[in-house]
Amino acid sequence: MKTIQELEEIRKRTFETIKVRREHSGTRIVVAMGTCGIKAGARDVMVSIMETVAEDNLTDVVIAQTGCTGNCDMEPIVEVYRPGQDKVTYVKMTPEKVAKIVKEHLAKGKVVSEYTMNS
Amino acid sequence: MKMYRSHIMVCKGTGCNSSSSELIAQNFEKELKENGLENEVIVERTGCFGLCALGPVVIVYPEAAFYSQIKPEDVHEIVTEHLLKGRVVKRLLYHESIDGDRLKPLDEVPFYQKQVRIALRNCGVINPENIDEYIAFDGYKALTKALTEMNSEQVIDTIKRSGLRGRGGAGFPTGNKWEFAAKVKDDQKYVCCNADEGDPGAFMDRSVLEGDPHAVLEAMAIAGFAIGASQGYIYVRAEYPIAVKRLTIAIGQARQYGLLGKNILGTGFDFDIELRLGAGAFVCGEETALMRSIEGKRGMPTPRPPFPAVKGLFAKPTILNNVETLANVCQIILKGAEWFSSMGTEKSKGTKVFALGGKINNTGLVEVPMGTTMREIIYDIGGGIPNGRPYKAAQTGGPSGGCIPASEIDVPIDYDNLIALGSMMGSGGLIVMDDTTCMVDISRFFLDFTVDESCGKCTPCREGTKRMLEILERICEGKGEEGDIEKLESLARSIKDTALCGLGQTAPNPILSTLKYFRDEYEAHIRDKKCPAGVCQALLEYKISDEKCKGCGICAKNCPASAISGKPKETYLIDQAKCIKCGVCMSKCPFKAIAKE
Q1: What is the domain range of residue B241?
Q2: Which of B11, B220, B345, B512 measures 20 to 30 Å from B178, CA to CA?
Q3: Which of A25-29, B448-452, B553-557, B571-575 shows the lowest mean pLDDT across its residues?
């Protein structure tokens, strides 16, 4: 028999895994998955984001993907949308760089400016 | 549960399931594996999304891309384009869900825009075979709240104040029903769920059971706590195999988690639920007949009083609630009576699920606040009538209900307004009719159903409905006589006053309501031997137009009764005495020269 506390744990844990199905107002991290992006390693970047987000137990983060953003020589490209902030575009991503973005930008809201498009 | 970036929700309600949604789900799983996406993307089989006309339906999150009328062979494109490359496959999207290049959120799609989903809140959103997903969206939280923070009086008071009325047809206040049963002292009481949905055109209970079975179990446990019952029964149609399967799984999971059974959540409260399968008899949806059937007896109504709250199942105090009624209970306990009663009209609170069918573009399930007008349901949500034909009437409440004519299309729909119009809420079946529907024929259809399903216990229902049907059949065959309408009215009144149960008492409603608004159609059938809507075959005449006929003779060649004659290049003629009114000539004529009148 489950206790009320156990029920609450199931609720929290499962909600994290299925919350993408509800309207969402938090952070959204989008990986460009055009042919050029995939060729440049976007899939590894995506997997790394998923793993880091799960490891760090980040809540209110949705991982999505989009097609080619048009900057093919900058791929893999990752965009971060946070409520009340302008979109931040990260370029030439690697799984290692992504881990830092998750830990800094997604978790603490600090933009990792050295990886952005304008740097 | 593992984290997946994308969730593919494949509708496995009865409608989509019958148009190959299982194969679609399997194709997704196969394609995901072939593309190495099986650890990133999950396929979930859900309950009904509501838009049955567009099935099979697939929604992909987090984009909430609404794919409609998907074929198993479309899956490859969705996986390689959308899931692999992030490009939504526009050609497969429901056309109203895109606005130029922008993908509209689901609640901006016209079909969903005016809907408020309470009873259907989890349908299409969770995997109904996974209790954890139900728990994730606040499942079993209301039961926890009731058991730990409230006493039975407070639960009953909340339901009473919410204004929730029975969604099964009669519209009796749910809280009052619970209160009566709670006040009766007895060592054993029962909670029954009426899932014997038998109205032609209604399928909302089935959809709740298929899409969110735990919502019903949880509400029954709360009802058990409120009235002091330890045992519940769900009486469900055996014709609903998916619902039965999911309920069985849900009961097993709830028992495993200790949410049913002894000492629930360690609070000392005991409650368990068993399923009872009905054999598909309409009368078994009537509360007293339903309880006799659970007892293993023949399903026949018994006179009231005694009311079930005093002497119900196995002669013990019993409450019987419909599936949709129960599907509202947990949200009322969680969000409060005021939240619920803020929606709806003065005497009809909350929302109502309607099963839209008939001549309507968006066939399916819609849940709207009480007080929404028929016009909003049909035109704003239902997408209007196919081919732009005019609205003639909507039949509500199934065989116990009646028709809402075009003149009343702007009346806010609630229990009392529908009754004032001569119809009723009933279970919520809503069959839309255009100008090609014959109202006499519709009455005949519903009476035919009632006669078939009458249990035969009381004479007014057994004999009276049969006599009414005979008259209607005669009228439709062109053999109507002066005085038939008066005979129908007199029979209808006697049956209403003398039948034993609610089903018999309401059986004449379709006739009375069509007589009220469409009496001229009855008169045209009887006096002029004409069917104005062109439906009753016996009253139609197929005629060939002098102007349009080119004398090709195709009609004569195809006529199975050799009723058409003529010479090449001259107008052909139909011998009305020989014509069997099959309509083959009309469908074969290349010049549209044949019309039925």
Answers
A1: 131-342
A2: B345
A3: A25-29
Indicate which CATH number applies to the domain containing B445.
1.20.1440.230
CB contact under 8 A, B5 and A15: no
Facing residue for B63 by CB, picked from A31, A47, A64 = A64
Residues of B in contact with A64 (CB under 8 A): 5-6, 62-63, 86
Q: Please name the member of A20, A46, A65 whose beta carbon is closest to the beta carbon of B61.
A: A20
Cα angle: B3, vertex B4, B10; to 5 degrees: 130
Q: Answer yes or no: do B445 and B428 share one domain.
A: no
Decide if pLDDT at B45 tops 70. Answer: yes
| Contact flag A50-B2 (C-beta cutoff 8 Å) | no
Question: Residues B137, B179: one domain?
Answer: yes
pLDDT of residue A70: 76
Q: What is the rounded CA–CA span in Å between residue B24 and residue B28?
A: 6
Same domain, yes or no: B17 and B66: yes
Count of CB atoms situated within 10 Å of the CB of B114 = 16
Closest CA to B507 of B286, B354, B203: B286
Domains of chain A: residue spans and CATH: 25-115 (3.40.30.10)
Looking at residue B101, its pLDDT comes to 78
C-alpha to C-alpha distance for A115 and A93, rounded to whole angstroms = 8
Measure in Å the smallest separation between the Cα of B271 and chain A Cα atoms.
14
Inside any domain, residue B122? no
Q: Which of A18, A59, A66 to mutate to test the interface with B (most CBs of B within 10 A)?
A: A18
In chain A, DSSP finds a helix count (H) and a strand count (E) of 5, 4
State the CATH number of the domain containing residue B423: 3.10.20.600
Q: Which residue of A has its CA nearest to B81?
A: A67
Distance between the two ends of chain B, CA-based, in angstroms? 64
User: pLDDT by residue (tens digit) across B493-515?
Assistant: 999 999 999 999 999 999 999 99
Mean pLDDT of B574-597: 91
Condensed to tens digits (0 to 9), the pLDDT of residues B208-243 reads 999 999 999 999 999 999 999 999 999 999 999 999
ipTM metric? 0.86
Please tell me the predicted confidence (pLDDT) of residue B586: 93
Considering the domain architecture, whether residues B254 and B150 belong to the same structural domain is answered as yes
The answer to whether position B117 is within a domain reads no
Residue B1 confidence class, pLDDT cut points 50, 70, 90: low
Phi then psi dihedrals of residue B286, to 5 deg: -75, 135
Provide the token pair at B175. 């809280």
pLDDT tens-digit map of A36-92? 888 899 889 998 998 898 888 887 788 888 777 777 888 899 999 888 788 899 999
Is B523 found in the same domain as B387?
Answer: no
Please check whether residues B159 and B232 belong to one and the same domain. yes
Judgement on whether residues B91 and B155 belong to the same structural domain of the protein: no
Nearest to B595 by CA among B539, B557, B544, B529: B544
Taking an 8 Å Cβ-Cβ cutoff, which residues of chain A contact chain B? Answer: 1-4, 7, 10-11, 13-18, 20-24, 28, 31-35, 38, 46-47, 50, 53-54, 62-67
Q: Do A18 and B136 touch (CB under 8 A)?
A: yes
Q: Please count the structural domains in chain B.
A: 5
Confidence of residue B438 (pLDDT cuts 50, 70, 90): very high
| Same domain for B515 and B408 | no
CA distance B393 to B403: 6
The percentage of chain A sitting over the pLDDT mark of 90, rounded to a whole number, equals: 30
Which residue of chain B is at minimal alpha-carbon distance from A59? Answer: B3
Q: How many CB atoms lie within 10 A of CB B35?
A: 15
